[in-house]
Amino acid sequence: MIAAEPLFRAEGLSKRYGGVIALDRADLEVRPGRIHAILGENGAGKSTLIKLMVGVVAPDEGRMTLEGREVAFARPAAATDAGVICIFQELSLIPDLSVADNIMISHPPTRFGMIDRPRQRRIAEEALERAGAGDIHPRALVKDLPLSRRQMVEIAKALARQPKILILDEATSALTASDVTKVFEVLKRLRTEGLALLYISHRMHEIAELADECTVFRNGRRIATFAAGTKTDAEVIELMIGREYKHAFPEKPGPKADGRPPALQCRSLGWADRLKDISFSLHAGEIIGLGGLDGQGQRELLLALFGVLRDCRGDILIDGNNVKIESPVAAKSERIGLALIPEDRKTEGLMLPMSVRDNLSAAAFDRFSRFGVIDRQRQSALIDEMIRLIEIKTASPDLAVSALSGGNQQKVVIAKWLMNKPRIILLNDPTRGIDVGTKQEIYRLLRRLADDGAAILLYSTDYDELIGCCDRVLVMYDGAIKRELVGTDITERALVSSALNVQDTEPAEASVP
Amino acid sequence: MSDATASRSVQRGTAMLRRLDPAVAASFGCILLLLLLGSLYSRSFLSPEYLLQQLKVASFLGVIATGMMLVILLGQIDLSVPWVVTSGAMMACAVAAHGTIGAVIAIPCGILCGAAIGIVNGIGVAYLRIPSMIITLATNAVAQGLMVAYTGGFAPQDAASRAMRYLATGNAVPGLPNAVLVWAVVGAAAIWMLSRTTFGRSIYAIGNREQAAYLSGIDTRRVTMLAFALSGALSAFGGVLLAGYASKAAQSMGDAYLLPSIAAVVLGGTHILGGRGSYLGTVAGVVLITLLQSILSVMQISEAGRQLIYGAVIILMLLIYGRQKT
Amino acid sequence: AEPETVKGPASDPQCMVPWTTDTKFFKFPAKKGPYRIALANGYIANTWRIQMIQTAKAYAAQPEVKAKLKEFKVVSTGEDVPAQISAINNFIDSGYDAIVVNAQNPTAFGPVIKRAKQAGVILVAFDNILATEDAINVNVDQKGLGELWAKWLVKNVPDGGKVLEVRGVAGTSVDTDRHNGFHAVLDGSGKKWQVTEVVGKWDDGVAQKATADAIATNGPFDAISGQGGDTGIVQAMLDAKQKMVPFGGETENGFRKFCATKASEGLKCSSAGTGPAQVAVAIKVALAALEGKVVPQSVKLPLAVVEDPDFKKDQDYFPAQSDNFFVGNSFPTCGINFTAQEIMGQSKENQ
Amino acid sequence: MTEWRYWFSEQRGTLLAIGIFVAMFLIYATNHPAGFSVNMVQTAANKATLLAFVAMAQAIVVITAGIDLSVGMILTLTNCLASWIVVGTATETALGVIGVLGAGLLCGMINGAVVIFGRLQPIVTTIATGAMYYGVALFLRPNPGGSVNETLADALTGRLFGVLPTSLMALAVTALVIWVPYSRSVVGRAAFATGSSEVAAYMSGAPIRAAKFTAYTLAGLLSAIGGLFLTFFSYTGEAAYASGNAYTLFSIAAVVLGGVSLMGGRGSAIGAIFGALAFRTIGDLLFVFDFDPLWQPLFQGLVLMLAVSIGAFGLVRVRNRLEWFG
Ligand SMILES: Nc1ncnc2c1ncn2[C@@H]1O[C@H](COP(=O)(O)OP(=O)(O)OP(=O)(O)O)[C@@H](O)[C@H]1O
Ligand SMILES: Nc1ncnc2c1ncn2[C@@H]1O[C@H](COP(=O)(O)OP(=O)(O)OP(=O)(O)O)[C@@H](O)[C@H]1O
Ligand SMILES: [Mg+2]
Ligand SMILES: [Mg+2]
Fold first, then answer.
1. Which of A102, A159, B47, D147 has the lowest tally of Cβ within 10 angstroms?
2. Considering only CA atoms, which residue is closest to atom 29 of ligand 2?
3. Does residue C119 contact residue C90 with C-beta atoms inside 8 Å?
4. Å from B295 to nearest chain C CA?
5. Per-residue DSSP letter, D317
6. Cα→Cα distances A43→A80, A383, A403, A408, A430, Å
């Protein structure tokens, strides 16, 4: 049921980065009025394809046509002019400019050569409204917004540019469930308006809900294109990873009750007006999930535990001993043994231009140095071991991490802390932008770490993850823990209702204060 | 030497060659080019005496640029170089006037003064988070103020001690000026520190992304402060050497070292925003700047022409190899 | 109030020597003392300037001078000319009676001179004088200094030869005047001279490096002249084992120490310059003008010259003192005699 | 209400600069021997506007996350040029003024072209071009001298209606004619975007090159206006290396005091103007306090240090340590 002539066609596109073939003679056809999903493992070449399409990088070979005419965009601005608009995996918002300025960055309305700010603001407000983000103030600075809000701004910005083809490269990866719903409505509306949409995501259920057709990439090659719904999830995943796939979260044995004090315990932890009276305990061998809408204090809780926030109230106990954690230096010390996998790997997790080796070393100098002098052999041994253990796909430990695919970068962030053998691991949405295969690896890894005695606190925006991975889930709302779900009580329904702080249909379970 | 070790050392050699930054290689190429061009003007630019003398003079800038490089690697800058150089020199000379004990502790005292100013810079940058460009400008003004008040008010001794003279102008190894040896030692220490110590790697990490370094549990503030302290100490040490070379300390002897030290570091391929750069590049940059200044100095053209050529040659060399990747 | 232009001689003809025979003489209306006098200095961070300020303070503190002064204020504004102009404007607005200026740029003070004239404030410039007839200039003959050094070389190097000329800060009038004087004499000497010019910026370190380079590439030289940084120049000669040759240079103590000790090896020196003590003469002239005495518009200071073999220990040079110290501290005809100790140790005793 | 809050947070840097300036100027004015008089204001204004022009120039470049170390030299060069050509009849003078501004524009364009098309780091590029501009200045004025149309000069450094310093008016007009349209133009906003995040700006299709080029060009133009005023103020031209350098360094200080982020993307030229005024007032304070002349430089240094540390008091309020890095 091919509906229309292709709006855009790519033929034989290839791109090499040094020895790495990022894209190998790829073809693609995009049609108006349809949502075309692109799937593939981390590093399959999806983002590379997009970058070629919108002129961020030039292809080594191959040609592209738009509306029958051959095109080769020299820079993103040229693609924008032609109506090929992309929302990148790496956000392209300008932190110090206002939301309105960002939305209208390439084609602002002008009067007498100056930007017509009242009009710009109106257009921006409309675009935000259309993207379902009318709550964002157009004058707010982008850098003051949380990540999920920023992504909504990205979407509004794309809409304001009157796209013919709209490409979303993991644009929903940082969004909360409620935002995703809104964005989906927008996308479906755009489809009926005749836009061509390219949709990249690692979330299978999103693709199932949205896509009209799917293309699978593996190792830089297009493997298959098929109409949505003609293949099962398992089949699709097998196409992606090229081998058999067993979908399963690892077993949840739960912590052994050995009578030892909890590895981490909070007593009425508070900070400014963002954290309120938080108490819980986390045992060795246990994985606790943090749920709730984005921005309800989960990030602050992790930062508070990691010694980043000043003037915290309440007590933190490690192995039953009251401790003061004043800095990440203290947090990672032998005595405390904390690790934090931060939210934004680009700015908080990695030194992008530095090598994998340097990044893996940064948190664990003490493991292979004496009196500040690095023992190179020991360092190399530990790093090689870690790369093998976590299966980081890199040609060499001396490669810059910026050259790795998003998923592998995320693995580096996790691995860098595992180098330090932490006893308590705090994770801030660690599987964002990670393909299903790798996600499974990370889940197994977390469970293995827990089984080996680590205590894990996992914040996630992905309900499946909380359900599949965690022994207990603490749902936060407005800086406080509103509800604790244990074992089989952890259901999507329970998570959603408590996240919204609404009465569940089974009032017995709700703990409304 | 067995075959195995020989081939291993060959391997290591080629590995080093492969690792050698093309920019660094190109900058050494530029040095040769400069000398060749100079020799068209006068044969003596190729004479060993002249070259050694240039190395000797370069070593003062080299020591100072080492400190500057540490700070630039952090993504900061140190504009307090001029008066830290002077303070180091003047304080060392002043201490040297106090008998035998004075003579012994003169050099360490000078260096410590520089380190102290560096620590003030470091506290400003790391703990108060004042942009380095401005806090170092301020400490430079304060150091100048202190030195002016000191010279005017305390009738200071400003003759260099014998040890200082020996360090700057002596020849412990025949034919090789001590200053060059000193620079070699400082340079070797810097290379070792930057590549083999946690401090050095932390500097690169902070220069690339301070926030990520902080969240990795690196004590970013201490590292930053230490780097500034080292920069101050090395500037002051440069001043001590200069005082030894001139056999005395004088006001404003550091003025001629600020822009050249920045230029040398950046000319050597270190990224001004921090995080990237190798010490060999800095060595090349220092030698380049020194040679260029020297060759221009003795060419009989007007000062105006010299300035024009100086600027043009720097830009030309950067265009040859110093372009940023986009 | 404008000065009357009168006929000479000056009230103190021995000290206040007119620049030329055409120099005008001024007689300002006498004001009642004690006076408020200001010193508007520019750059401060080198030894010459510091010494100059010390001398000014010392002179103002002398009992007979002190009696005439209600206030003596010094402000240093740095290298920036407009800042110095503004400082003078401020002094004028604040009602100072006379302002003594070491100008950063001799030509830049036109507007201020106008204002000073309108306000009846006496402006006395020294060291870097003002290119005007409306202010009093107390100056050393910069061109004459260059000539003096050249004459010395002409006299002491019989057959001409290779000369190294170490110049000062480019773009300044002092550097150009000295350079022009120097060349005028060499060119007119009838001998063959091959001059190598380098820039020493009046700074020992810079001069030393430049000299070292010059010797290595163009040396050895038969004669050397330096506008400043001469201690560094001789140091470079020693380091490069350049033979000691006749030298025309400034008055740094370090340089004179070399002149005295290395004379036998051939370092025959003419050491002459513009000592920082000229500030005292400037103050003296300002006071005289305020008192209504006749003063020349342009005062010619004697050069403090010492030539080989006249270098006398503890009079022309001070082995125990700093190399950076400038020895030209006395203008006997003006009754100004500061010893090195008095100036450099001045506030030390005050402490 | 929130609208007002957003405005306030956008203008915070500028407001702080105004605050610092007003506080300092009050101290100065109330202690001035001549009292708060028209003359005193005119004197202060004339001196400060010069730096204010250069600071505006620096601010515009710094906003793109670049830096221009040649602004002082462009000032010197245009000063020398103006002392040749801004003379004679009204027409000749007008042509001369246009010529001077054109020269500044050209210098700025050269900087911009080298930085953009050569892809060189701005800091060394402008050190090198600065040397070249100084060379040209020396060609023009080997000796201080020259002259300027004194009627124009007096008019522009005098007073309007007997009270308003013309130089301040000229500064205000320049800000209104250059900065305001620029900052609200597409290119101007692209400059902010480039400074804030060059990659994001590129990805968003903002005209990065045009923005940088315009920024450097305007910086050249504004420095030339500064050079013109220097000529009006001093009636002459002088190729003064030290003072050119001083203006460059002062402009950085002024920009920081004016709340412009050296990381780029934040700040305004208006803030930089007040930063310049505040910086100049530090120098003026010497005049009203009776310090030993040899302790004056130290006093100045300490006041500068204090002024730049004021921003650090905000740190006490920071509860989330990650904000250090923002
Ligand atoms: N700038 C670069 N330099 C070197 N290699 C690169 C560069 N960019 C991408 N690559 C490589 O190209 C391959 C494809 O990367 P790409 O980013 O397209 O993957 P992806 O499918 O988008 O993965 P993900 O799902 O993790 O985002 C990867 O192996 C990556 O390491
Ligand atoms: N940076 C901005 N981002 C988004 N909207 C803005 C921005 N600046 C101004 N606006 C909005 O544009 C409209 C009119 O702009 P106008 O130019 O009058 O701004 P303004 O409030 O005067 O700002 P300023 O005082 O900063 O110039 C107003 O609705 C204002 O809220
Ligand atoms: Mg991708
Ligand atoms: Mg991804």
1. B47
2. A118
3. no
4. 8
5. G
6. 25, 21, 10, 8, 17
What are the structure tokens assigned to A238, written together? 């097998």
Percentage of chain A exceeding pLDDT 90: 43
Q: Give the pLDDT confidence score for residue B11 in this predicted structure.
A: 57
Structure confidence at residue B4 (pLDDT):
55
CA atoms within 13 A on the CB side of A53: 29
Q: How many CB atoms lie within 10 A of CB D221?
A: 27
DSSP designation for D162: T
Residue type, A231: K
Q: How far is CA D208 from CA A35, D65, D190, D192, in A?
A: 33, 12, 6, 10
pLDDT for A133 beyond 70: yes
d(CA B179, CA B169): 7
Which of A75, A98, A108 faces D186 most closely, judged by CB atoms?
A108
Q: How far is D186 from chain C (nearest CA, A)?
A: 37
DSSP structural state of residue A261? P
- Determine the Cα–Cα distance for residues B75 and B210; give it in Å rounded to an integer: 9
Nearest-10 Cα torsion for B153, B155, B161, B164 = 30
The better pLDDT of the pair C48, B199 is held by B199
| Among the listed residues A313, A312, A319, the one whose alpha carbon sits nearest the alpha carbon of residue A282 | A319
DSSP-based three-state secondary structure for A91: coil
Helix axis angle for B99-122 and B220-246, nearest 10°, is 140
- Inter-chain CB proximity D196 and A96 less than 8 Å: yes
C-alpha dihedral sign at B271, B277, B282, B284: negative
φ, ψ of residue D240 in degrees (nearest 5):
-95, 110
- Strands (DSSP E) contained in A50-120 are 61-66, 69-71, 84-87, 110-111, 114-115
Structure tokens at D137: 């200045």
Q: In terms of pLDDT, which residue wins out, A441 or A329?
A: A329
CA atoms within 13 A on the CB side of B188: 5
D314 touching A (Cβ < 8 Å) = no
C351: confidence class by pLDDT, cuts 50, 70, 90 = very low
For ligand 2, the distance from its centroid to the CA atom of residue D168, given in whole angstroms, is 27
User: Higher-confidence residue: D203 or A382?
Assistant: A382
Please, are residues A428 and A297 in contact by the beta-carbon 8 Å criterion? no
Query: Which string of DSSP letters, residue by residue, matches B166-207?
Result: HHHH--SBTTB-HHHHHHHHHHHHHHHHHHHBHHHHHHHHHH
Tokens 């010694």 locate to A307
- Please, which pLDDT band fits residue A512 given cuts at 50, 70 and 90? very low
Q: Return the SS3 of B255.
A: helix
How far D320 CA sits from the closest chain A CA (Å)? 5
- Give the model's pLDDT for residue C350: 39
Average pLDDT over residues D215-231: 96
Kind of pairing between the strands at A287-291 and A455-459: parallel
Mark which residues 262-281 of D lie under 8 Å from B by CB: 262
Angle value at C-alpha A337, between A336 and A343, nearest 5 degrees: 115
Structure letter (DSSP) for residue D177: I
pLDDT tens digits for B138-187?
Answer: 999 999 999 988 887 666 778 888 899 899 888 888 888 999 999 999 99
- Number of helices and strands (H, E) in chain B? 14, 0
Q: Are D200 and A92 in contact (CB under 8 A)?
A: yes
Q: What gap in Å lies between CA C94 and CA C84, rounded to an integer?
A: 15
Type of residue numbered D191: A
pTM of the model: 0.90
Cβ atoms within 10 Å, residue B122: 29
Torsion-angle region of residue A272: left (phi > 0), alpha (psi -120 to 50) or beta? Answer: left
Query: What ipTM does this complex have?
Result: 0.88
A194: number of Cβ within 10 Å? 12
Residue A110: phi and psi, rounded to 5, are -125, 155
At A511 the pLDDT is 41
The number of residues making up chain A comes to 513
